[in-house]
Design brief:
The chain has an eight-stranded parallel barrel with strand order 1-2-3-4-5-6-7-8, surrounded by six helices. The chain has one domain (12-250): Aldolase class I (TIM Barrel, Alpha-Beta Barrel). It is built from ten helices and eight strands. Helix content is 38%, strand content 15%. Bound molecules: 2-phosphoglycolic acid. 2-phosphoglycolic acid (PGA) binds next to strand 8.
Amino acid sequence: MTTNTGEAMQPLIAGNWKMHGLASRLGEIEAVSVSIRARPIYADVLICPPATLLARAVQAAAGSIAIGGQDCDCESTGAFTGDISAEMLKDTGACAVIVGHSERRQRHGETDAMVAAKVTAAWRAGLLAIVCIGESEAQRLAGKALTVCGDQIAGSLPAVMASSAVAIGYEPLWAIGSGSMPSPEEITQMHQHIRQCLVAHWGAAGKLVRILYGGSVKPSNAREILALPEVGGALVGGESLEAMDFETICRSVPPA
Ligand code: PGA
């Protein structure tokens, strides 16, 4: 997976399985992996299954898909029952982690500062951090979407870019799992705003960070979304669970 600076980066298509998937679903990962080996894809492909499946998912992916976690603790080790460190994710063979997903911000009270600490932990372990931000429907209706997301960027990213292994996932909360999504113009406006915020935060290095769109991405809309300016990939929930749908989304990235 391309995570470093300098070279032109391919779009990143990341599947987030959330709390779905028993061992019987590993065949979906294997199917995507076999297909990618048979016919190349113009994107980096990542699947983030539940932590219980990570090690077996790495085997099923056979090196042609990257595997990542859905969250990590900010500490590397200690008396923290039930938590999983970035180093532990790395130890399974994972190479990335989603941090600050709105479901964790809402259900587990994760704050911007906690998310920033998790980004630092991901870098410490050598993982790509995918940092999720996004506004609620009420915030969008109140005309505050850009400000809310700008504030989340400022608060959820470490002040110093200690590693270029980072991507942003812009996921409007009201678009997640709902079938609704912003218009192409609204997605473009937000992604351009996020780019400006990244440059304000990290200087020129902020120009190289991939900004993924997430929220109701599916095979029928992926091509249009992925062609929008400043959209560097997609974060896919429900439609990443079935190999055929996820692969169609991955194949919606045109050759560079
Ligand atoms: P969705 O979820 O694709 O099912 O809308 C996206 C996400 O929450 O990452």
